[in-house]
Amino acid sequence: MSATRSPKVTDRVAPKAAEPPPKKKKHDDDDGPDFATLFRAWLESHRASMVDSLRRLGKQPIGSFFTCLVMAVALSLPMGLSLLLKNVERLGGSWQRAAQISLYLEMDAGGRDGEALVTQIKGLPGVADAEFVSRDQALKEFQQQSGLGEALKELPDNPLPGVVVVTPQEVDKPTLEALRQRLSELPKVQQAQLDLVWVERLAAILKLGDRFVFGLTVLLVSALLLVIGNTIRLHIENRRTEIEVIKLVGGTDAYVRRPFLYMGALYGVGAGIFSWGILAFGLNWLNDAVVGLSGLYGSDFALAGVPAADGLSLLLGAVLLGYIGAWIAVARHLRELAPR
Predict the structure, then answer these.
(1) What is the pLDDT of residue 269?
(2) CA dihedral 81, 82, 87, 91 (to 10 degrees)
(3) What pLDDT, on the 0 to 100 scale, is given for residue 271?
(4) pTM surpassing 0.70?
(5) Alpha-carbon dihedral angle through residues 320, 262, 253, 232, given to the nearest 10 degrees
(6) Cα–Cα distance measured from residue 133 to residue 99, given in angstroms and rounded to the nearest whole number
(7) Are residues 220 and 309 in the same domain?
(8) What pLDDT shows up at residue 120?
(9) Residue 116: which CATH number?
(10) What number of CA atoms fall less than 13 Å from residue 120's CA on the CB side?
């Protein structure tokens, strides 16, 4: 009897395939919140800061109103003077009109010669416009302006020559002088006259006005930063204990700074709106007297209002100044409120 070999345990059991290592469970805390969550949290933080700033300003309506009013007055002065300078420049005529070149024609030049000369001059470079004034028209204008109408009627002949008035494109002294010299060489032109003294005087007056407005703007902007900085400083002092507690529990400087920056920007919004209204009302009130005065001189001149672009620039500048003033004030006092 043959002995049978009993199978070993290893023979009866099939080899087991190697299992892959267990995957490590992914926890949400490993990667942190996604971008959408962080963005919503950021928006909510800014919304809460702005609402808190509005609420605190609403608790002190009188103080907030007068702070905005002081800022509005400081903004209105330089902007108002700048608008008045623009109106004065418009009243005195454009630069091109102030620098007109008068070409006095020869006595034997007729109307056809004058019109032909105007056509030739308009084709020259650097010339914006040209107009011919005949001898008869010049005499009528002189009679009306001088008040010597009856005396001039006694003259046997018209003593005034024809004139071509040339308006240049650019107002530059060397360019104007070169253009005058070229025009004086044209046929039928006896004399070319350019009143450069008036151009230089007008330029000096407007340059002086621009510098005065710039200097006043710098001074008032500095005062405005001091006003908004002092106002924000008072708000910081009123919340000193609250800020120290926030910093003790881990609040960042950006979190502490944010409500005060919104407060400064809101002060700027109010000041910009008030300043725009002050300028519009002031120019409208002053315009009545200007229209009456210009009517006495037979003119229809009137002050222009506040352009929309200038008003929006004023509003944006006020918001920016309020933001910068608040930032300076918070940056200065935030170091003093570090927890001890």
Answers:
(1) 92
(2) 90
(3) 92
(4) no
(5) 80
(6) 17
(7) yes
(8) 87
(9) 3.30.70.3040
(10) 14
Main-chain dihedrals φ then ψ at residue 331, nearest 5 degrees? -65, -35
Distance between CA atoms of residues 306 and 86, nearest Å: 11
Q: Which two tokens stand for residue 84?
A: 């008045």
Provide the domain limits for residue 117. 100-194
Q: Which amino acid is at 97?
A: R
DSSP run (H or E) holding 242: helix 240-248
User: Distance (Å, rounded) from C-alpha 280 to C-alpha 263?
Assistant: 26
| Residue 154, strand partner residues | none
**Which amino acid, residue 40?**
R
Selection from 298, 221, 284 nearest residue 83 by Cα:
284
Cα gap 309→311, rounded to integer Å: 5
Of 273, 286, 280, 281, nearest to 314 (Cα)? 273
Rounded CA separation 209/205 (Å): 6
Q: Which of 173, 194, 215 corresponds to the end of one domain?
A: 194
The Cα-based distances of 100 to 119, 158, 170, 296, 303 in angstroms read: 17, 24, 11, 26, 25
Q: What is the DSSP string of 261-276?
A: HHHHHHHHHHHHHHHH
Cβ–Cβ under 8 Å, residues 132 and 164: yes
How many CB atoms are closer than 10 A to CB 135? 20
Pairwise CA distance, residues 331 & 94, whole Å: 48
pLDDT, greater one: 195 or 340 = 195
Do 236 and 333 lie in one domain? The reply is: yes
Report whether 251 contacts 337 (CB < 8 A).
no
Whether 43 is in a domain gets the answer no
The percent of residues above 90 in pLDDT, for the chain, comes to: 6
